[in-house]
Amino acid sequence: MAAARPGSPAPRRLPPSTLLLLAAVLLAASPPARALRFDLESGHTKCISDEIKVDSMAVGKYSVVAPDPSYPDAQLPESHRVSLRVTSPYGNSMHYSENVQSGHFAFTAVEAGDYLACFWAPDHKPPVTVTFEFDWKSGVTAKDWSNVAKKGKVDVNDGTRAEEARGYHQIYSRGNVLST
């Protein structure tokens, strides 16, 4: 680094509050996260959990993706369907849908803790792989999803930007079909 010339002003540094404000603006201007895409082999289960606070709104949408990317709008084969159950930390069912190609859910958390969304696909011979997209938001991020939740009185927890930015904290697969 070159030395300052005599008589020239010292280099200016931005105060920490300005740097923090600049970081917040950049974070707010960043594009929103897109849906997660998963592959699910027929006869298997894939579960995703999300920690949700009491009285926080949670919304989700899911859809099976066409097996041939060249024809995304083509009718899906009968083998490309999934079932979904969303359960609370104490095992209460928040959403259940069976043998569908797409769907959505919305609920207000009545228990604090890890909510579990488990997808499974019927067993097929020969096995098929079903690709699906899943977007699950809770807390502050759920405010973007007013078209999913029914119009009316909905209480959404106001939280920090850090809570909004957190993602799914656990994703795992199991080789067994979830019994209903």
TrEMBL record:
<keyword id="KW-0812">Transmembrane</keyword>
<keyword id="KW-0732">Signal</keyword>
<dbReference type="GO" id="GO:0016020">
    <property type="term" value="C:membrane"/>
</dbReference>
<keyword id="KW-1133">Transmembrane helix</keyword>
<keyword id="KW-0472">Membrane</keyword>
<protein>
    <recommendedName>
        <fullName>GOLD domain-containing protein</fullName>
    </recommendedName>
</protein>
<dbReference type="InterPro" id="IPR015720">
    <property type="entry name" value="Emp24-like"/>
</dbReference>
<dbReference type="InterPro" id="IPR009038">
    <property type="entry name" value="GOLD_dom"/>
</dbReference>
<dbReference type="Pfam" id="PF01105">
    <property type="entry name" value="EMP24_GP25L"/>
</dbReference>
<feature type="signal peptide">
    <location>
        <begin position="1"/>
        <end position="35"/>
    </location>
</feature>
<feature type="domain" description="GOLD">
    <location>
        <begin position="45"/>
        <end position="136"/>
    </location>
</feature>
<comment type="similarity">
    <text>Belongs to the EMP24/GP25L family.</text>
</comment>
